[in-house]
Design goal:
Helices cover about 30% and strands about 5% of the residues. The chain has about 150 residues and is mainly α. It has a single domain, classed as Orthogonal Bundle (Helicase, Ruva Protein, domain 3), CATH 1.10.8. A two-stranded antiparallel sheet has the order 1-2.
Length: about 150
């Protein structure tokens, strides 16, 4: 049996109104919700950390508690960051290679993922790593207030 996947995060397929409705109906923290492939297809741990940092949203914030402006930022940054990841051929953190056996270069553009203890590129506060939903989660406690 095939599970239903959400839309791909492209301008054409990933409609804001549907995304907002799904967030308004959920008490889940935003990070685990974004990792749910039924909401939006293709978002993994690295990209969710980057999206939430870019959108200035704390990963533990319950989805329905986000302001409409924050929801819109998350939506728009999801499209932008996934597009950048595609352009850069993905993230080669450990062993990822594309279909041609080449390394991706998205890891060179990451702002928070894997940067624990380093200064935030936006405010210079120290990047922290917490555990959320069993996943390592990187964030800036200053830029991503709850």
């Amino acid at each position: 049996m095939k599970k239903k996947l959400g839309p791909e995060p492209t301008k054409k397929a990933f409609k804001y109104a549907s995304f907002e409705r799904a967030l308004m109906r959920s008490d889940k923290p935003i990070k685990p919700l974004l990792l749910d492939q039924k909401l939006v297809a293709g978002l993994g741990n690295i990209y969710v950390d980057e999206v939430l940092w870019a959108a200035k949203v704390h990963p533990e914030t319950p989805a329905r508690e986000l302001s409409k402006a924050a929801m819109k930022r998350v939506h728009d940054q999801t499209i932008a960051i996934l597009q950048l990841g595609i352009e850069k051929g993905g993230s080669t953190i450990r062993t990822y290679r594309n279909a041609l056996g080449e390394d991706g270069t998205m890891q060179d553009y990451l702002q928070v993922y894997g940067k624990t203890g380093q200064p935030c590129p936006r405010c210079a506060s120290t990047i922290e790593k917490i555990k959320l939903g069993g996943r390592g989660t990187h964030l800036c406690p200053h830029c991503q207030k709850r």
